């Protein structure tokens, strides 16, 4: 079974946003383009690191502006244009505040700014990290967060194709056409999220992740 990913950019609040509570506006949903995995992916990152019940990608002792993201993973069909929640495994990684990635050697125990975690049974996810720094690679790359999203069943077994993408940020001057990675999709507005400052420091944003079959996508968009 093949899946595509749609990101619905929710309204950004001036506080850490609560999971759920997204409006049902099917006409605003846009299919998120996939993006390159990149050369810095490292499999088998630790599960569920963080304080309390909230996973952390970049640990709280690292320098940088804290980033809080949450949302819901949904499966969309023509009969359910607003989606039904599905469980998913999220594999998230990014550069640190200086634009550097942790050691990608398989034997290295360094998993800085890398984490895996699952949604709850209603598809909700929430995690904290830092706003990643840009890095120079024959030109500047915009700040971005890497994602792998895999639909899973109640036993944690995959039930759909893994989707690989990158999330960029509104207002970054190094998104395409200024991105040094010509093969990357930083110019795709469906892969861009809004964040805002929150009381006490840090930034927050939220997005809804919706997966559905490509052949059904055409029927949904045409209505």
Task: Give a short summary of the structure.
With 223 residues, the chain is mainly beta.
Description:
The chain has 223 residues and is mainly beta. It has a single domain, classed as Aromatic compound dioxygenase (Protocatechuate 3,4-Dioxygenase, subunit A, Sandwich), CATH 2.60.130.10. The protein is built from one helix and 14 strands, in the order ββββββββββββββα. The strands form three sheets. Strands 1, 2, 3, 4, 7, 13 and 14 form a seven-stranded mixed beta sheet that branches. Strand 3 (66-77) and strand 4 form a beta hairpin. The radius of gyration is 17 Å and the shape is globular. Mean pLDDT is 76; it is low at 1-21 and 207-223.
> Treating each run of at least 4 consecutive H or I residues as one helix, how many helices?
1
Shape: globular
Radius of gyration: 17 Å
Low-pLDDT segments: 1-21, 207-223
CATH homologous superfamily placement: Aromatic compound dioxygenase
Determine the strand fraction and express it as a percent band. Answer: 25-35%
């Amino acid at each position: 079974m093949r899946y595509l990913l749609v990101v619905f950019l929710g309204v950004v609040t001036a506080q850490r946003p609560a999971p759920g509570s997204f409006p049902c506006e099917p006409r605003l949903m846009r299919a998120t383009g996939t993006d390159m995995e990149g050369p810095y992916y490292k499999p088998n990152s630790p599960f569920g690191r963080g304080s309390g019940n909230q996973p952390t990608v970049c640990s709280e002792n690292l320098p940088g502006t804290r980033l809080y993201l949450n949302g819901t993973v949904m499966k969309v069909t023509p009969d359910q244009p607003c989606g039904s929640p599905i469980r998913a495994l999220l594999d998230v990684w990014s550069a640190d505040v200086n634009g550097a990635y942790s050691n990608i050697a398989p034997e290295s125990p360094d998993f800085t700014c890398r984490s895996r975690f699952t949604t709850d049974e209603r598809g909700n996810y929430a995690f904290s990290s830092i706003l990643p720094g840009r890095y120079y690679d024959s030109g500047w790359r915009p700040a971005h967060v890497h994602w792998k999203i895999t639909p899973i069943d109640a036993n944690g077994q995959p039930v759909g194709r893994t989707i690989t993408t990158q999330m960029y940020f509104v207002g970054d001057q190094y998104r395409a056409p200024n991105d040094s990675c010509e093969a990357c999709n930083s110019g795709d507005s469906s892969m861009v999220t809004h964040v805002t400052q929150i009381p006490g420091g840090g930034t927050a944003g939220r997005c809804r992740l919706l997966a559905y079959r490509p052949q059904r996508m055409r029927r949904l968009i045409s209505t």
